[in-house]
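Thread: Newbie trying to understand structure tokens

Hi all, I'm a second-year student working on a class project, and my supervisor (Dr. K.) asked me to get a predicted structure for one chain before our next meeting. I've only ever worked with sequences, so writing a 3D structure as a token string is new to me. If someone could post the tokens and maybe explain what I'm looking at, I'd be very grateful. Here's the chain:
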Amino acid sequence: MRSLRRHPLLVPALLCALVMLVARPTEAMGEGDGDGLGSGSGVSAQVARLYEDAALATQQYEAGRQEAEVRRAQAERAQALLDGERREIAGLHDDLGRMARAQYRTGGGLPVAAQLILADSPDALMRSQHVLAQASLALAGSVGRSRRAEARFAADEAKAKAAWQALEERNAELAAVKDTIERKLEEARGQLQGQADASVAAGSCRGSVRLGQPTRNLTQPWVAPVQTYRLSAGFGSGGDRWANRHTGQDFAVPIGTPVRAVGAGRVVSVSCGGAFGIEIVIQHPGGYYTQYAHLAAVAVDQGERVDTGQWIGQSGTTGNSTGPHLHFEVRVTPEMGSAVDPVPWLAARGVPLG
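---
Reply by user tm_fold:
Sure, no problem. This is what the structure looks like when written as tokens:
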């Protein structure tokens, strides 16, 4: 439990930071194009920030949970030590009982006058007195050790309980902060998707939303279109959902997940409506095009140049979609019908999907 006291300011600092994260996105709802709380830019920015805040809160919560596992192992070791101290105290008590009984049997309880009368000789008396003195010293030492062991045991047990209680309280607070952020994020995602559905129904995009870009320290020229994902329907899949075969790779992600340009290029089209809902097509050097479909918002305009990893929009479930995901295609022309399998295409460029 000693390591818990090395950084006494760490726990309150982490909690304060996370509480600030909970409060910050609410203030951001009015930012953007000046339309107030209902503005498309404000909701998109709020979702993007909450998405990052939720990731940070989850990271902090997981770190706390892992620390709890470490502390649990330490607590189990401490409990083993405490059990050893219990056995030591019990042994000392047994020793004290044996010593007291032995001293009584050897005359330790007799007055000095009685010992003088009963002694066979002065030498025998001196030897008896020496033995009794040694026994008394041993008894006093054992009593002292027993008392010190009991005090140490009580202190160690109190420290163990206090450290474990503090850890459980901190993890409960981290979990509450995480749940609050995720609840706000879910509400904002619903609002963002509602605005996207309205745009698709009207057949006109509401314009690009300028999102704060993350720090990109990318050394590779190509990346996956989303950072965290689960692969769902693959290229060439069949089923009732498609008139022919599936023309891309689907990434199952929540609404509002930042979508990245897989490589540098130029935006050749941004459109709304139809089977793909809100979609973006980017032209890359080398004659290939990538498509990002079923979006909830776009963050680029037609004709704009983009860099590898740049946020170009947010995922959604617009168009012919049965749930939140990103539909990603690689094409040899900007039009539908020229798609190639994106999984080996990305793998050949150093981006294996898994």
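A couple of things are worth pointing out once you decode it. DSSP finds five helices and ten strands in the chain. The beta strands are 230-231, 249-252, 258-260, 265-271, 278-284, 288-298, 305-306, 311-315, 326-331, 339-340. Feel free to ask follow-ups in this thread.
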